[in-house]
Amino acid sequence: MLEVLGLVQSMKNNLAPINRIPPDVFFRIPEYLDGDDDDDDQNLIAMTHVCRSWRELLITRPSLWALLPDCQNTDRTRVYIERSKSAPLELFLYQHGDTTYLEEAFLSVVPHIGRLKSLRIKGDIDLLQNLTPHLSCPTPLLKQLSIDFTCDPPRPQHHTFQR
Amino acid sequence: MSKLTSFTFSRIPEDKISISQLLDFFEHAHHLKNIALHDSIPTLSDAPPERVVSLPCLETLIIDAEAAHPVLLNHLHIPVGVSLVQDFDLRSDESSLLDFLPKTLRNLENVSSITSVHLSLGSLEKLVRLGGQNGTLWMSGHWALRDLHRFGLDLQILRSLSCFDLSGTKRLAISQLTSLLHSDEMTASHHILSRMKDLRILALTQCHTNGFILALNPDKNPSKCVLCPKLEKVVLCVGRRNTVDIEELMSMAKERASAGVKLSSIMVVGLGEPLPWKQVYGLEGYVTRVDCRIAEEPPRWDDVPGGLVGRVVTWVPPLVTRNLAF
């Protein structure tokens, strides 16, 4: 009985006006969700919980998952990498505090290094020294690479010029 | 990494990287357009002096380090079109721009034709922008010790401009140059202006100095000849703590007019307060146009000099009543 009710609810949802918008338009919605940049990935995940059809649509769109902001969550990082399938990856992997997240997240990226398009990584010198040798693997798509070794205290950045 | 176009390297300890490794990396990433190195250059080079790596696609190179800029720049060929940005600390009165440039400027094709020179010589930071059709060089030196203003430093910066080819420079803008020793000031300004044979616009903002005005005066400069014969416009922005020596200005304009190189325009801008406009308008006898203005803020140090700033101040000469004799 519950399955039938679920099916009916799903059909009802499919008839809702918002579900009649073309897929190309629908996939632009995540770009316009409110919230600061740090919450972009949270918004995308929240959208997958709206209804079954949204979830199916979003999860089967690899390009939506190919850009991973600084999320500090290893599970979420793995989910993004998995859902991005073979899309070129753009990743922000930053260490805030202990090194666990950065180490685990980077190691989950290692099998996919060949499809890295952009990598910004910031962390402790000892950790990065162990991780960056993985970048010697072929990276035919890599266009942007930023490696920031955190140190204490950092030299002030003056940013005088507006170019 | 054959497709790599952007590379940023930040805060790597000196003992963890060598110049050879950086050069090897650049050679394998020959499509690099943007490179930023923040505190990531070793202080000594392990590469043979003759090794020079070309970066054919480069558009922007940012080097931000306390020193050691030339250690890397000696090994790079910077092509035409590049914007090279250097940020460093100044630690001595004897520091000069040359400390941060490569041994030979032949490596820097981006400054092979300089048409504009901008300097900002404030007490805490010294900013230099050399621009032209082949690219740009920005240098930003921060006075690390933060005590008294170091006049010797300003002099060194002015002197070190001599290493560049300034013969095609059309615009020179200097901000916040304070008084140097009179003889040094005259020598430095004369030396720079004598190399700028094509100069059209000179802009001095909040400068407490007469050196450049004296150097432009063929009657008062050491060589007793006309410098910058194509000079058309002089812009002076005068703040509360600066003064404009109208007499020297007038003498310069008069002598240049007598020598057949009359200025087409002098613009005097009072920053926040009025100036002796009556005296300023007295320049009209020797200059085609005198433009007096009041502005609240000085123009940005790297703005194109000579643009319109502030609001116009008009001074109407009082009516002179003459006793007509019949």
Task: Give the key terms.
heterodimer; A: 163 residues; alpha/beta; 2 domains; 4 strands; 15% strand; elongated; B: 326 residues; 13-stranded mixed sheet; two-stranded parallel ribbon
Characterize the structure shown.
The complex is a heterodimer of chains A (163) and B (326). By secondary structure, chain A is α/β, with parallel strands linked by helices. Chain A has 7 helices and 4 strands. Chain A has 2 domains: 1-60, no CATH class; 65-148. In chain A, helix 5 packs parallel to helix 6. Chain A is elongated, with a radius of gyration of 19 Å. Chain B contains 7 helices and 15 strands. Chain B starts with 5 loop residues before the first strand and ends in a 14-residue tail after the last strand. The relative contact order of chain B is 0.08. The interface between A and B is medium-sized, with 24 and 28 residues.
Concise overview:
The complex is a heterodimer of chains A (163) and B (326). Chain A is an alpha/beta fold and 163 residues long.
Shape of chain A: elongated
Secondary structure tally: strands of chain B: 15
Side-by-side strand order of the widest sheet of chain A: 1-2-3-4
Helices of chain A, by number, come to 7
Average pLDDT of chain B works out at: 86
Q: Please give the alpha-carbon distance between the first and last residues of chain A.
A: 65 Å
Order of helices and strands of chain B: EHEEEHEEEEEHEHEHEHEHEE
Number of domains of chain B: 2
